[in-house]
Design brief:
about 290 residues; 2 domains; 16 helices; globular; disordered C terminus
């Protein structure tokens, strides 16, 4: 049975409108992903891997930090157990991303499967914090943000691989980009937590940075016990255990609980599919904001 032309036109209009709304928010990700992807492609080719493997990893694995770690895994002795544990620990933060996006990804149809797969740190940050304009289909908005971000990473990895086959300079130390990337993420999170706490006048060195302090202390302890070659996985396990055990106590000190009221997290519980919260929920959120000030 042929589809109604007007229905196809409306569907296409919703898609293009969502793309126009989503693209500007992904420009910062474009800058970061393309250049980091180029570095990853260069590293892969300089380590002796074929050009196509970087692109394939970007399409299938699509986990930036794990892809960098994968270079060392593929060059080392075959150890599937260690690779599995490392992948699970590095990706364990996605559990919390998934929980946070339960409401936003509700009722988006089959796109949900891709949205779950394509969730990265940066994509989560954009989709979670985005204020979707009225009339924009939120499912397509989330889809375009996710697809564009993966496209940026894939293009960067491919360009780096192609250019890497012609590179003649010494690429030793290029893998240190992974360390610097995590350092930037850590410092940025520290600054975000400090700024959020100061906005609501609850800043305190320990209470505002307890998660970061747990991470640093756990890493140093495991470094001292297991040595520089084997401390990463035990550190991740220890961090996860400590944060899980003391989750309720730590959560009570986090400024995000004050800055972002609970009512704001239910923006997906709308009836019109635009991604905007119902008027009552928006009003409650605004009252909560005023009360927190």
């Amino acid at each position: 049975m042929p589809q109604n032309p007007s229905l196809k036109t409306r569907t296409g209009g919703r898609r293009s409108a969502a793309l126009k709304a989503a693209f500007p928010l992904t420009i910062p990700v474009l800058a970061g992903y393309v250049f980091t992807g180029i570095t990853y492609g260069l590293l892969m080719v300089s380590s002796g891997f074929p050009i196509w493997l970087s692109t394939l990893n970007a399409l299938i694995i699509y986990t930036g930090s794990l892809e960098f770690l994968l270079v060392a895994m593929l060059l080392s002795a075959f150890n599937p157990v260690s690779a599995l544990v490392t992948a699970l620990m590095v990706g364990s933060r996605h559990i919390f991303y998934g929980i946070s996006m339960l409401g936003r990804y509700r009722n988006v149809g089959r796109k949900k499967f891709y949205l779950i797969y394509a969730t990265t740190d940066e994509t989560f940050a954009v989709n979670y914090s985005a204020q979707i304009p009225a009339g924009i289909d939120r499912g397509w908005f989330y889809f375009w943000v996710s697809l564009l971000d993966q496209a940026y990473w894939t293009v960067g990895a491919t360009v780096g691989s192609v250019c890497g086959s012609f590179v003649t300079f010494d690429t030793r130390g290029l893998d240190f980009v992974l360390t610097t990337m995590f350092m930037v993420i850590f410092v940025n999170q520290w600054l975000v937590d400090s700024d959020a706490a100061r906005k609501v006048n609850i800043y305190g060195f320990l209470r505002s940075h307890i998660s970061e302090i747990v991470g640093v202390a756990s890493s140093l302890a495991c470094l001292a016990i297991f040595g520089p070659d084997d401390f990463i996985v035990p550190s991740l396990v220890l961090i996860l255990i400590v944060l899980t055990i003391f989750r309720s106590r730590i959560a009570a000190t986090l400024p995000s609980h004050v800055v972002r009221p609970a009512d704001e997290t239910h923006v997906a519980d709308d009836e019109d599919g635009t991604g905007r919260a119902p008027a009552a929920a928006q009003g409650t959120a605004e009252l909560a904001k005023e009360g927190s000030r």
